[in-house]
Amino acid sequence: MLIFTFAAGTIIYGSMEQKVIVKDGFIEINGIYGTKLNVSEIKDISLVDTLPEIKRKTNGFDFGNILKGNFELNEIGIVKLYINRGTPPYITIKYRNSYIILNFRDSSKTRNLYNDIKKQWNK
């Protein structure tokens, strides 16, 4: 019973949409496999409708169309994903030598986040 409860809790927690906060020069992604990124480390940001093929999960959460954590993508390598697969667009952030790719189920929410990040990045 304890194992079932733990597994169910992990699925519920992992399936919750991440909260993203953009302020004071930082992007903070809360929830499972969350991270914090200084906007000054961003080298490029784009809004795309397709992603390279996902080769494998290296350390992450993969349940249905929800992918969070570290994944290996063709053409890019290891990236942090916070996505709902099949619901573009996706925000692709290149920083240092890696990438973060994220989106929300609601495409307008994804576009709004993209605009908020761009405003912080362009300061």
Q: Order of helices and strands, N to C? A: HEEEEEEEEEH
Mean pLDDT: 87
Strand content: over 45%
In DSSP terms (H or I, runs of 4 or more residues), the helix count works out at 2
List the uncertain runs: 11-15
Amino- and carboxy-terminal Cα gap: 52 Å
Rg computed from alpha carbons, rounded to a whole number of angstroms: 14 Å
Strands of the widest sheet, in order across it, are: 4-8-9-7-6-5
* Shape verdict: globular
Number of strands: 9
Biggest beta sheet summary: 6 strands, mixed
Derived from helix and strand composition plus strand pairing, the structural class reads alpha+beta
- Helix coverage percent: 10-25%
What brief labels describe this structure?
24% helix; globular; alpha+beta; 2 helices; 3-stranded antiparallel sheet; 123 residues; 6-stranded mixed sheet; 9 strands
Secondary structure topology:
Elements: H1 2-15, E1 19-23, E2 26-30, E3 35-38, E4 42-48, E5 54-63, E6 66-73, E7 77-84, E8 90-95, E9 98-102, H2 107-121
Parallel strand pairs: 7-9
Antiparallel strand pairs: 1-2, 2-3, 4-8, 5-6, 6-7, 8-9
Structure report:
- This protein is an alpha+beta fold and 123 residues long.
- Helices cover 24% and strands 47% of the residues.
- It has helices spanning 2-15, 107-121; strands at residues 19-23, 26-30, 35-38, 42-48, 54-63, 66-73, 77-84, 90-95, 98-102.
- It has a 6-stranded mixed sheet with strand order 4-8-9-7-6-5.
- The radius of gyration is 14 Å and the shape is globular.
